[in-house]
Amino acid sequence: MKAIGYKENLPVSDDNSLQNIVLDTPIATGRDILVEVKAISVNPVDYKIRANRPTPNGDWSVIGWDASGIVKAVGEEVSLFNVGDEVWYAGDLNRQGSNAEFQIVDERIVGKKPSSLSFAEAAALPLTTLTAYEMLFHRLEVYKDNANESILVIGAAGGVGSILVQLAKKLTKLNIIGTASREETTSWLKELGADTVINHRNNLSEEFEKYKLPAPEYVVSLNATEHHVGEIAKLIKPQGKFGFIDDPKTLNVMPFKGKAVSIHIELMFTRSMFQTDDMVEQHNILNEVSELIDNGTIRTTLGENFGTINAENLRKAHAFLETGKAKGKIVLAEF
Questions:
Q1: Do the Cβ atoms of 89 and 105 come closer than 8 Å?
Q2: CA-CA-CA-CA dihedral for 322, 327, 332, 333, to nearest 10
Q3: pLDDT tens, 256-293?
Q4: Domain span holding position 323
Q5: pLDDT digits (tens, 9 = 90+) for 82-121
Q6: How many domains in the chain?
Q7: Which residues, 6 or more positions from 34, have their beta carbon under 8 angstroms from its beta carbon?
Q8: Where are the alpha helices (DSSP H) in the chain?
């Protein structure tokens, strides 16, 4: 099968950082399904691993954790899917990724693809959807019927923010405050349902004062957490909840002690990495959101299509994502 892989941790400007290769097609056993990959999208985890995680024993590493496709074979213990089903999923950090014609995935982290979306439109969503949903409802434990509460979403115009804002708008009664810094991304967030958009290039507390915004019960930081942490501690309501998904080198939690703020980390790979007892929750989440998309409640967050799935286009996608200027998600479709 065709695939894109790497053997060395190289900058994306190097042609060898991602290469077109040929690998054996894997075989589905147990609870695994074999998916013919039709479309993929790119996330920050892709370039972080490409640049930093060594390959085992000098073998090819295939990355990519967002895909949609068609089930081609099922393991003997599979009960959730049949051959021919259209599916979408994010995958497992411990296994080969979706930058290949075929991929093995545990059925418990796979959902039914929204029938109203193309494969490319669907591929934009799984990882960010799982991250956003788990952050809102499993980590911060937002109650869907809570009124008169606010959530601040820092870096809201990217992949995770674009779906988190929609989920919060459609499934909760929260007042949604998003941050962006460009006219284009500000407009994007308002389209998705943000009630107020403030500029994260300014002090957040000054922006809150400018717009006369209430102290948020919930704060989600999607990037630059290390930079914003002091302002978050200043702004958040006493006994509030603060969650983040990025990788700050250091994070001083002491400013939160006086307000008894709880701190939450979200990593959507945790369930699959540790084979948790509730691993099938990701199957349930993807199916729930699939229905929300098909009934018009949620829209795809596809930002740009970078063309067919090959090493050259994937390197371009990684390079653009590394600039931090992406709006929505970058996808590639077909080999």
A1: yes
A2: 170
A3: 999 999 999 999 999 999 999 999 999 999 999 999 99
A4: 2-125+277-333
A5: 999 999 999 999 999 999 999 999 999 999 999 999 999 9
A6: 2
A7: 25, 26, 27, 28, 71, 72, 73, 74, 102, 103, 104
A8: 44-52, 119-123, 126-133, 159-171, 183-192, 204-211, 225-235, 270-273, 281-294, 311-322
